[in-house]
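Quick one:
INPUT:
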């Protein structure tokens, strides 16, 4: 089978496409899944970049998000059967409840757990979940990280609904999913981008207010004005150091700031801002399998489909990663294993 592996050094240029034997039959409680599609996340770029760590003979199979078919099951498997369409879960041991050090210890596509940039994976039956019936493999492959992160931000840690306002930063995967979820539940949405073209695409998905942050550098204040002058109830904060201060400025008293991204590195925000507004600041890193199941049910009920910007062949994974690094996409970048 085909496997992409990072060898000997960090960086996209050190990925190698290899031919390896398929894994053996699944053991007790395990399932084998033939993958059909994957999607990319900024986390993949961060992982491949090494985060300043020494290479030290690194071996890493990247990517966390995929979809495929169960092709074999081991003894005692009851959650799925051969032929079921499933997604591997991002955290292989976070099934329900709140995040802990233990249930977040094993994430796919990390130095701890091999990723999904390979044709066949063997996983615990508890580490997969069903694909919504209305989605293709490519669409379902976008769900485990970006969609679930957005779902947890707007429907688990807070409850976005009619009468609430949501600020979405940029037009990447998490922000576009959060836009779709917020609109499905009747909230007012404000979205930012440096591209008028992307803003118009967001408008077609239901965005109520558009802010070009290059033309409006003080976009936090603008968002607060657009939310009736009192501020935004929920901010989906994905930018990190470059955006967090504007996110706090946009937020309403008692509002929620969902901190998801750290693209800009570290930041300092003043305590008087947090205290004075009585803000709830939540760090968000994906979610549990139970959250995934609730999200899938809602997406089926509201017929929500992911926004896929570009699709690359399996052999083009490095090119797809470079496209993500360039940041020109709208929504998700996917990998088709059949190409």
């Amino acid at each position: 089978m085909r496997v992409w592996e990072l060898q000997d050094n960090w960086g996209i240029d050190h990925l190698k496409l290899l031919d390896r034997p398929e894994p053996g039959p699944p053991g007790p409680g395990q399932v084998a899944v033939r993958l059909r599609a994957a999607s990319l996340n900024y986390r993949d770029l961060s992982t491949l970049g090494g985060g300043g760590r020494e290479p030290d003979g690194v071996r890493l199979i990247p990517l966390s998000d995929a979809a495929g078919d169960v092709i074999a099951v081991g003894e005692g498997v009851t959650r799925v059967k051969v032929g079921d369409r499933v997604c591997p879960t991002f955290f292989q041991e976070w099934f329900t409840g709140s995040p802990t050090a233990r249930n977040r210890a094993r994430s796919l596509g990390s130095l701890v757990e091999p990723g999904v940039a390979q044709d066949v994976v063997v996983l615990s039956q508890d580490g997969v979940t069903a694909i919504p019936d209305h989605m293709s493999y490519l669409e379902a492959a976008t769900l485990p990280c970006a969609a679930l992160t957005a779902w947890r931000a707007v429907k688990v840690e807070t409850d976005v609904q009619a009468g609430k306002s949501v600020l979405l930063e940029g037009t990447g995967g998490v922000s576009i999913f959060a836009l779709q979820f917020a609109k499905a539940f009747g909230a007012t949405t404000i979205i930012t981008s440096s591209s008028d073209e992307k803003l118009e695409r967001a408008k077609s998905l239901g965005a109520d207010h558009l802010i070009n942050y290059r033309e409006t550098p003080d976009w936090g204040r603008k968002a607060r004005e657009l939310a009736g002058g009192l501020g935004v109830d929920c901010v989906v904060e994905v930018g990190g150091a470059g955006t967090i201060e504007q996110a706090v400025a946009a937020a309403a008293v008692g509002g929620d700031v969902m901190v998801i991204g750290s693209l800009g590195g570290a930041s300092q925000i003043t305590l008087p801002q947090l205290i004075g507004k009585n803000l709830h600041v939540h760090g968000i890193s994906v979610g549990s399998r139970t959250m995934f199941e609730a999200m899938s049910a809602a997406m089926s009920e509201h017929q929500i489909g992911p926004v896929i910007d570009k699709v690359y062949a399996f052999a083009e994974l490095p090119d797809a990663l470079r496209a993500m690094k360039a940041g020109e996409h709208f929504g998700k970048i996917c990998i088709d294993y059949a190409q």
